[in-house]
Amino acid sequence: xxxxxxxxxxxxxxxxxxxxxxxxxxxxxxxxxxxxxxxxxxxxxxxxxxxxxxxxxxxxxxxxxxxxxxxxxxxxxxxxxxxxxxxxxxxxxxxxxxxxxxxxxxxxxxxxxxxxxxxxxxxxxxxxxxxxxxxxxxxxxxxxxxxxxxxxxxxxxxxxxxxxxxxxxxxxxxxxxxxxxxxxxxxxxxxxxxxxxxxxxxxxxxxxxxxxxxxxxxxxxxxxxxxxxxxxxxxxxxxxxxxxxxxxxxxxxxxxxxxxxxx
Amino acid sequence: xxxxxxxxxxxxxxxxxxxxxxxxxxxxxxxxxxxxxxxxxxxxxxxxxxxxxxxxxxxxxxxxxxxxxxxxxxxxxxxxxxxxxxxxxxxxxxxxxxxxxxxxxxxxxxxxxxxxxxxxxxxxxxxxxxxxxxxxxxxxxxxxxxxxxxxxxxxxxxxxxxxxxxxxxxxxxxxxxxxxxxxxxxxxxxxxxxxxxxxxxxxxxxxxxxxxxxxxxxxxxxxxxxxxxxxxxxxxxxxxxxxxxxxxxxxxxxxxxxxxxxx
Lengths: 263, 263
Fold this sequence. Notes:
The structure is a homodimer. Chain A has helices spanning about 25-35, 50-60, 75-80, 85-90, 110-120, 140-150, 160-170, 230-240, 245-260, and strands at about 10, 15, 40, 45, 65-70, 85, 95-100, 105-110, 130-135, 155-160, 180, 190-195, 220, 240-245. By secondary structure, chain A is an alpha/beta fold. In chain A, helix 8 (about 230-240) links the parallel strand 13 and strand 14. The two termini of chain A are about 25 Å apart.
């Protein structure tokens, strides 16, 4: 039994598909309990294309106070937010939503912040660092903005699709005071090496950064969660690097989500 | 923390307005846990008129396996059921819904059964009894059908609105082999006396049956839950009657709901 679960429980559904591997129902609910708050995070499996009726219903449901949004809905959910954080606005997507006073939704995108927090929690020195970021998709874009906000001195963006790197560089060129460049997947001279691609989900994937180019002066972080130690992190640990993985990113985001949802 | 709450949790929302006093979230979830099943009953506050979009969304949500329906939605929810029990069909309303194999909904109305079970749990002899039922609305109609199914020998229906008594008598005239009649709120000769009206919600309400007409040969049951011992039950206990209250009805329905939802 939940410690607190009754007719007065406030709901914070997490919406995605697939949904059964998400950790927020247990982690966020435990966080509510620690704060002595009668809130519950419940999973809702909502297929791509079904977001509109589900958002309509959850908006009408009086005891739904917040939402967590995961794949494939992070971009589509943006449209249901009457107000958004600057990061969400830049990225055009949201990971969390809470009610405004009038019942409308305020959205924020916490994934990048969570990733950076996981790195610093594991010992990375992000401020004034020189970072190579591989992957300029949704995750990479969120991480890039968070890195700039955290004070990296230089950011090199690489994506196998060069147009994505360039688009991200253009997107964030006004967002910070760092030097932002598009470049190869070469970490030479970098203190921070981050993977924001799906490479590593399959054992047969090539490494996002060649193992031979890693050395112990680099901190290596990976967005991939739930697949054990990825080949990139294995190679990094062999090279003597400190590392952070996607599970630590998921852990790091919980407190942020609690603060946001109860904010 | 719920013992079981994660991304794989199956949801069984209870839909109503107001919702904060319902007991099913804790009771049904405890029942799922006892059966070692990863299911959770969560409250959803859905106003009258908002059922359609909420039903659409919950139907689309892959891990919603069942629904509990309470006021004011019991009649409106009937329309969303592709298949229904005979009792639900007769009454035109449902209290519980579960998925058919094709994802559509099967509805049943368990309130009457729950009421009758509460009476027998508290010692009433329903089979072959002679019952006075005061109140021929939704609750009274459900109870009348359940009493016939449980084998009462004679049923006298009273409602302040005589057209409702007559309508209920006509509705159930084919549903059992008992003698069914419309009559005054006089329990003389009855072994069972049941209140299915809202009288007793307010302390100033008149009794549904005059206290002077009760004697210790009668078993007296009341649908009203959550308002302590109602004036009718106080009078009945003073007269030496055995009694059952609405809370016992709510308790009685939990196992039925579990059987139905996991059936």
